[in-house]
Structure formats: structure tokens, C-alpha cells
Design brief:
Oligomer: single chain
Helix content: 10-25%
Number of domains: 1
Number of helices: 2
Structural class: alpha+beta
Distance between the termini: 19 Å
């Protein structure tokens, strides 16, 4: 995946309760992991950083194109109008590699 594509996350506008209540808070946390049936099986990434809402139409188009190229299956779930999607550019500040198979809450910090 390109570096640029890996910087974006999107969500449906209707799911952003926090955006409506705190639009200036740019700190975010997210996890990337596979499905698991038990906490002891968790392994993945925990990422903390800053998110900026993308409002430039050219950047929205470019990021959307990258997402559709990387995940063509999302086309059938995407709304007809792009204004129904909110796009953020995420700049990671800290990444933890999670591996609970080594013990509950085990993580290795990666400094950026």
C-alpha cells in the first residue's frame, strides 16, 4: 500500500457523534487487528496520533481513488454522494505492536 493511502481513514458522517461535540480535538487512537475469539489471541497495532479532516476536493478525490484501487469491494458499500463520507488524514505519533499471545497487555512501543 502506498504511504499516502495508509494515511487516510474514512467513516460515514452519521457515525461521528464525537465530531459534532468536539470538532477541534485532533487526537485519535485506532487499532488494526485481525478478528479474535479470546483476548489472549489479540495481535495487531495500536496507533495514537493526530487527525485532520480533509476538505480539499482534489485531496478527497485522490484519497478516494486510492481507497477504491486498494479495496475495490468497497464500491458497493460507498454512498452515492461523497459528502456522506468524512475523510481524515492521520499522522501517527506513536505505534504499539500488540501481541497478547506473549501475555495479557503485552506491547512493544515504536517511536516515530
Amino acid at each position: 500500500m502506498s504511504t499516502m493511502a495508509s494515511r487516510y481513514i474514512s467513516t460515514a458522517r452519521r457515525t461521528l457523534r464525537r465530531l459534532r461535540t468536539s470538532p477541534r480535538d485532533s487526537e485519535v487512537s485506532l487499532t488494526v487487528n485481525l478478528a479474535y475469539t479470546s483476548w489472549k489471541d489479540i495481535h495487531g497495532l495500536s496507533i495514537g496520533g493526530r487527525a485532520e479532516r480533509v476538505i480539499d476536493p482534489q485531496e478527497v478525490d485522490q484519497a478516494s481513488q486510492l481507497m477504491f484501487e486498494r479495496f475495490p469491494q468497497i464500491a458497493r458499500y460507498a454512498p452515492a454522494e461523497l459528502e456522506d463520507i468524512v475523510l481524515f488524514r492521520v499522522t501517527p505519533k506513536v505505534i504499539s505492536v500488540l501481541d497478547y499471545r506473549k501475555g495479557f497487555d503485552h506491547s512493544d512501543l515504536v517511536k516515530l
